[in-house]
């Protein structure tokens, strides 16, 4: 199953970013520290036209700390890019963000040349909560469903520092299949766009390989690494009483439990990808996407020939 979710308001957000970027000095992209690669929007690279970028790994208190270190090093090695981690325990997030932005754009500052920053992120990554923390007041709406913020807002963090908030935005086509599942597991994709059982099985397939001890501790299970995905989901359902008639497990309910326990980090601090893993997934996704495009182009060419919109190629010329 390929997971895709791009509601109408995201088209408007894409246009708003394109218009706003002309007057922006630094772009802050808020990422989910549990899936930094999957939550990085490839559409932003095109829209932001090479502006200096600050990657903020939010919710780092929910993520595997060792893997967060890997991701911060990965982003900090990229030109024109800084990266830092944030969570609710960081006492002065505004100070950290402002300092990083002025390091990326040292020629900005003061009332004559105020710093102008655009903050972007996928839905439900915690952007509105962060902004409310930065300002010390309820400047942005928050919620646990994807797609709460619908309009751009301008917020002053200092006399010479303007922050432009945009609605959470995904990209029109997710070519990395694993990213679709990870985004769904994190809550970035509307629940009507995916099948919870399928997402839970993909999630458990990864967790039983990389975090078997945490899964076993949470659900009081043994031998998790040797189970199939379906066996593990069934075992979780039985442990948590997600049963229906005939003592069978309600797999839908079991899936909801597994996804909720991951999102709330009650199983422990987990990260669903490393920089090396994501690079492999991206390479495979790009290759498959290129193959699809070749097939699509061939079908379109055949359609144009059949409807005589273009002449049929001479076989002698092509041989």
Account of the 3D structure:
It is a single chain. The protein is α/β, with parallel strands linked by helices. The protein is 45% helix and 13% strand. The protein has helices at residues 8-20, 42-47, 65-76, 93-104, 127-135, 177-186, 196-210, 212-219, 229-239, 251-263, 275-306, 315-318, and strands at residues 26-32, 53-58, 81-85, 115-121, 153-158, 161-165, 243-244, 248-249. Strands 3-2-1-4-6-5 form a 6-stranded mixed beta sheet, with helices on both faces. It has a two-stranded antiparallel ribbon with strand order 7-8. Helix 6 packs across helix 7 (196-210). It starts with 7 loop residues before the first helix and ends with a helix. Residues 142-150 have low confidence and may be disordered.
Strand order of the largest sheet: 3-2-1-4-6-5
Beta-strand content: 5-15%
- How many H/I helices? 12
Backbone structural class? alpha/beta
User: How many beta-strand segments?
Assistant: 8
Low-confidence sequence ranges: 142-150
Biggest sheet layout: 6 strands, mixed
